[in-house]
Amino acid sequence: MYDDTCRFLAEHFSADFASWLLGQSVTLTELKPSELSLDPIRADALILLESNELVLHLEFQTRPKRDIPFRMLDYRVRVYRRYPDKTMRQVVVYLQPTGSNLIRQNSFTLEHTRHEFDIVCGSNLPRSFYGILD
Fold first, then answer.
1. What is the largest CA-CA distance in the chain?
2. Left, alpha or beta for 53 (phi > 0: left; psi -120 to 50: alpha)?
3. β strands within the chain, DSSP E
4. pTM > 0.85
5. What is the pLDDT of residues 52-104, one digit of tens each?
6. Per-residue pLDDT, 134
7. What does the pLDDT read at residue 69?
8. Which helix (H) or strand (E) holds 4?
């Protein structure tokens, strides 16, 4: 239900997402997940936007899932393989309220590997998004 709307917003208002999440105005273009393939990425609402210096990864979710932290690491490594000189900002946007503790899990840790990403809850979306996602 939200996938098409979120994709539309990220594709058509990428500068607004950059200003909101990065705190600066950056011109971004869409990076297709297929460009990062080892095995195909199967994601409902994975949006990758890039500029000359960075990649902004937006992952829209309606509810938390246990595999999100690993998926975020996987996407980061795939982007690094293709664009080793670009920085990357990853944000999981939870669109619906939940009582799950998984919504606070913003890192993946395995032995000596640790990867972190940002989380935004629907209640913290900019006011301009209200009404569009309803």
1. 43
2. alpha
3. 29-31, 46-50, 54-61, 87-94, 107-110, 113-116, 118-121
4. no
5. 888 889 888 888 999 999 999 999 998 898 889 999 999 998 888 888 999 99
6. 47
7. 96
8. helix 3-12
Residue showing tokens 């098409």: 4
What is the rounded distance in angstroms from the CA atom of residue 121 to the CA atom of residue 100?
12
- Name the more confident of 42 and 115: 115
Q: Which residue has the tokens 């795939």?
A: 78
Tokens 């993946």: give the residue.
Answer: 108
Taking the C-alpha atoms of residue 18 and residue 16, their distance in angstroms, rounded to an integer, is 5
Q: To which residue do tokens 């569009």 refer?
A: 132
Structural domains of the chain sorted by starting position, each given as residue range(s) with its CATH number in brackets: 3-129 (3.40.1350)
